[in-house]
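Q: What would this chain look like folded?
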Amino acid sequence: MMNQSDTYTAQQPVPDSASDQQQRDLADRIDKQMLQAIAESRSRVAMQQFYQRYQSRLLPFLQRMTPDTALTEEVYNDVMLTVWDKADSFKGESRVSSWVFSIAYRACLKRLKRHSVYQKLKDFLSFTSEQQEELAHNEASQLESGDLVAKALKTLPDKQRIVVELAYFEGYSVSEIADIADCPVNSVKTRLFHARKKLGQYLTTQQGASDYADTISL
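A: My prediction, written as structure tokens:
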């Protein structure tokens, strides 16, 4: 259960010294606490906190799927409405974030098709500043490498680019991606295999690409 007095618990910071796995585990425990409050007591406080909590993670993911800002906001609200309506259907067999990203994945594709802008998924990809920093070791090469990889990713078929997005940018495992995309684990592995191959071929044909071919770590 959660009420106004639980705000601190849900928003407590993760220690900087914690490992990535510890951070993910703590974040998931907080997510489950919120989701339980939404499911059992219909806590609007918990829902508001959950809504705000996922904006920084889910909105960039949706924005990379479509450059339409209005559509991105619509999808995000669709996802949060589904969380509110279906919180009691979460069985705890995966991370809450995997469940939410799965909802977002399907909601975004549905909206894209409905708005007849599915083709935009093939033509758009953006990077956050944090992701650009991971692609390069200095400011001089940061934008160059980011631009090169972004162009390479644009050449991938939709399903391959989405699994790269989930694996590389969002840090999901193959099994988690299979849950999100609702497909077999082997399909995810196959898509990642072909994506690696195509990215490598593209990068090595570009001027200076050899300096950046190893920046993709799936």
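Confidence is low (pLDDT under 50) at residues 1-12, 116-145, 207-218.
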